Amino acid sequence: MSKLQELGKRLLVKRDGPLTRELLLEPGRFGLGLVPERLAPDQTTSMVCGFCSTGCSLDIHLKDGKAVSLTPAVEYPVNLGMACPKGWEALAPLTGPGRATAPLVKRKGKLTQVSWEEAIDEMVTRFKAVQKKYGAEAVAWLGTGQLPTEELAFLGALGKFGMGIVHGDGNTRQCMATAATAYKQAFGFDAPPFTYDDFETSDTIVLVGANLCIAHPIMWERVCKNKHSPNIVVVDPRRTETAMAATMHLAPRPKSDLCLFYAVARELIVRGAIDEAYIAQATEGFDEYKAHVMAFTLDRAARDTGLSESQIRALCDVIEKGKRVSYWWTMGVNQSHQGTRTAQALIALALMTRSIGRPGTGANSVTGQCNAMGSRIFSNTTALFAGRSFENADHRREVAEILGIDEAHIPRQVSLAYDQIIEKILAGKIKALWVIATNPAHSWINQNHLKDVLSRLDCLVVQDMYDDTETAALADIVLPAAAWGEKEGTFINSERRLGVIKRVARAPGQALADFHIFQLIAEGWGCADLFRDWSSPEAVFQILKRLSRGRPCDISGIEDYVAIDHAGGIQWPLPEGETLTSNQRRLFEDGRFFTESGRAQFLFSEPAPLPEEPNDRFPLLLLTGRGSSSQWHTQTRTKRSAVLRRLAPSELYVEVSPVDARQLGIAPDDSVAVTSPRGSVLARAFVTNNVQPGHVFMPMHYETMNQLTFSAFDPYSRQPAYKACAVRLSKASELPA
Ligand SMILES: Nc1nc2c(c(=O)[nH]1)N[C@H]1C(S)=C(S)[C@@H](COP(=O)(O)OP(=O)(O)OC[C@H]3O[C@@H](n4cnc5c(=O)[nH]c(N)nc54)[C@H](O)[C@@H]3O)O[C@H]1N2
Ligand SMILES: Nc1nc2c(c(=O)[nH]1)N[C@H]1C(S)=C(S)[C@@H](COP(=O)(O)OP(=O)(O)OC[C@H]3O[C@@H](n4cnc5c(=O)[nH]c(N)nc54)[C@H](O)[C@@H]3O)O[C@H]1N2
Ligand code: SF4
Ligand SMILES: [Mo]
Hints:
- By secondary structure, the protein is of the alpha/beta class.
- The protein folds into three domains: 104-173 and 373-499 and 508-551, Rossmann fold (3-Layer(aba) Sandwich), CATH 3.40.50; 177-365, Dimethylsulfoxide Reductase, domain 2 (3-Layer(aba) Sandwich), CATH 3.40.228.10; 620-734, Barwin-like endoglucanases (Beta Barrel), CATH 2.40.40.20.
- It is built from 28 helices and 26 strands.
- The strands form six sheets. Strands 5-4-16-15-14-6-7 form a seven-stranded mixed sheet, with helices on both faces. A six-stranded mixed barrel has the order 21-25-22-24-23-26.
- The N and C termini lie far apart (63 Å).
- The structure holds ligand MGD (2 copies), iron/sulfur cluster and molybdenum atom.
- Molybdenum atom (MO) binds at residues 175, 368-369.
């Protein structure tokens, strides 16, 4: 009997529904089937969206067992009947061209269709050969924040406990590492404190490096529902769509936020606009913080940020007057060489004014991908399950006991970060890489360097729902994955709310749910015995409940998927024995934090200069980010929808101020070359006052853009600083032939 047959047989015993080898290999059947047994062929069922971290719920309408259309769920506490263009078009990427329908292996330089058995054999044989020759650490993986928590947990357990891989990181490093690190250091746990109701109850909303209108449109809708005529302050070097709708826009020099918020802290202290009693009772390190920020006078901040003193004073005025002040940040803070300390400067403002643990307040990191939070807590990459530490012997023992495995399977060291994995490949220390649900050849910083690095691998395995991505093009093995809508599990959104995804469509061809791919690999590797209990996403959910018990992210009180569905999503924590009293819950209402002392920490550093300042040859500063609400990252999914394609420019563009355009003789729509010390790309000129003279902005959704970006990282979080590097612009027609 072949390994695959054996697996089929074992799964047959383990699973609720029947599963045979025939089913396993029949196109579109394994693990996906038709509409699962629990859904009727003509019903409507709801599930959370698979794009951004807002976590809207969508009602999916089935006809004859097929998902035919959707409408936003009206009763769900997140979106209240609303969805953005991506949500409305969420089913389109499933049926678009480019879907990976069969496993591929490179033979004679060409990716060739093979059976699942051959693909898994090839991967296992090559990975094991690498480990044998160069050591266990020579194989690594790069994961994602876009798989359900159960799949992420399985990957983390399989990779680290089963395959002996030490280094596994995710695209959440590009995105959320800074917020996670900032929270962990300040609160003792990676715990965003807010609930979306805070958007509506706040009277002062401070948005820092966050363009909600484009990146989180339904969160912005929640802001618009606020009945308290809130002050909305946007801190962003660009006049974004969100800035245009705000009551106050401050456009500081990029990465000068740290200095700005130190100056705001100083001003509030000097004015006596802080809560001394709360500081004494709930925090530590304030005196040192105060001493540090005293050097950041308004005069100094004005010089460093390019804002006027009166602008900074005006910001302090609205904060001082506000009764319910909330601070929200996204990539304008996280993707910076000093992101962690900048996030902590916002946390410090919230702490010193007691803008936390009360309705309408908080130092709130808005997450990015649909399951960034699930990845942060349960992916077993940078943290051992449920925010534990690999270096802590007690934590390793707890996890080993809960999982019923030998403690020796658990690595004693934390994984290298994404950029360190890349550097180890360059150094010849990592020889095989497994990439799951992320597209680094497009999205990673300094792309030409990355492509060179990836080409040095002995074996690159790409597991994706499409086989035409920029990364799949470099792969030795492609494993075809089922997508959102074709499998089950849970996501955790920005406000810590678990939501369910369901199987409402067949995966094409032989594509399998990532969950089942991991099962096949476990079987092929010979470590499936460790994962006997990991038989289905729901079974893994029960395991995660046990792993979370007694941790800040305790979900042991959530019965199952049905309970999550009925409650309209459930926010962690919900320990066993506690009943859900509200579906809008925030953390730290009692002024106790997760640190050893129970107190929140003030943390600070001296601001550091930009890693790459503009200079004579490259006089402009390039900012990057999201371009439109209809484009998702590297566009592998959104480009399959004709509707979404029509809502965004089809080619790369660069926003340039009229002042710079005039000086360079650039007219609107001109083809221009944007050049950094690392590469040169062509783009259309979009001449607009929304960027300041001296700055340009480019959206990340186009293939070539990251050829320009500069590899700089936050020292604490190791998150890449995508949002500032030096470039020059020239008319394409004037380039040498
Ligand atoms: N439509 C759409 N929505 C998305 C995504 C998508 O690809 N498309 N991606 C999702 C993901 S994973 C993420 S992480 C989020 C990202 O969501 P956001 O962080 O809101 O989006 P970005 O455009 O990357 O960056 C936000 C802003 O930071 C500003 N910025 C740059 N440098 C600085 C600085 O030094 N200081 C300040 N204060 N601001 C600065 C930029 O000008 C930009 O307007 O969006 C999520 N939502
Ligand atoms: N210049 C610049 N670069 C940036 C940023 C920026 O602001 N500026 N932002 C960064 C940020 S915040 C992020 S989050 C990253 C995002 O970067 P990536 O993670 O590389 O972007 P995606 O396009 O979301 O890639 C997800 C991949 O997973 C595949 N996929 C989708 N669903 C499934 C599934 O269920 N299973 C499997 N196996 N595959 C699936 C998709 O087809 C796609 O290839 O980009 C970063 N890059
Ligand atoms: S806002 Fe985010 S979660 Fe809501 S529909 Fe749009 S992409 Fe989906
Ligand atoms: Mo992100």
